[in-house]
Design a protein that fits this description.
four-stranded antiparallel beta sheet; 28% helix; six-stranded antiparallel beta sheet; alpha+beta
């Protein structure tokens, strides 16, 4: 059943062959493990970046605290918004915010650094227009008839205003002008 190897040289050659096959298998396994670890690290980095970007698109948005308009018979020519950071939002540079107006006069899209818009932060002393804290409030004044805009709102009209931050987060507010306006400043 068992063959006895009497020649000592043959016995060593069988062991060396087995050792070479074993080393080759270990090398192949090590290379495969290195590729898997490298791929896992790349996928983890990509997943983290995607997660951060998705979080920014959801949380880095503006919150409209109040809105009003200046009535100049028979039109509303200026809109005023008081905005703040939404809960959990990072810093928001208001100069990079895009505004989209959709109403009966069509659609207009522009950035807040346009001359049709004036931005002022209540608590800022540096002249920056960046919301850095949840307690910061900013006034955004939109001149509907200035700087290339030709938008008019009259009694009974409605307007959809969408603010989009640089991260892609959007906030939409609906403005409905009362059918009868009796005061110069109208809360919308």
């Amino acid at each position: 059943m068992f063959e006895t190897i009497l020649d000592e040289e043959e016995r060593g050659q069988v062991g060396i062959g087995t050792l070479i096959v074993f080393i080759a298998m270990v090398l192949v396994a090590a290379i495969a493990a290195g590729v898997l670890i490298n791929t896992a690290g790349f996928l983890q980095t990509q997943a983290e970046a995607t997660g951060e970007e998705s979080t920014s698109q959801v949380s880095d948005r503006l919150q409209v605290v109040s809105q009003s308009g200046d009535f100049n018979d028979p039109n509303i020519e200026e809109l005023d918004f008081v905005v703040a950071q939404a809960p959990g939002a990072n810093n928001i540079d208001l100069n990079e915010v895009t505004v989209e107006l959709v109403g009966t006069d069509g659609q207009e899209t522009f950035q807040l650094d346009n001359s049709a818009a004036t931005v002022e932060i209540f608590t800022d002393t540096n002249g920056d227009v960046v919301l850095t804290d949840n307690s910061d409030r900013a006034t955004i004044n939109l001149d509907l008839t200035g700087s290339g805009l030709d938008y008019t709102l009259q009694e009974g009209d409605s307007l959809s205003v969408t603010f989009t931050t640089s991260s892609g987060a959007t906030t939409t507010t609906e403005i409905r002008v009362p059918s009868t306006v009796v005061d110069d400043t109208v809360r919308l």
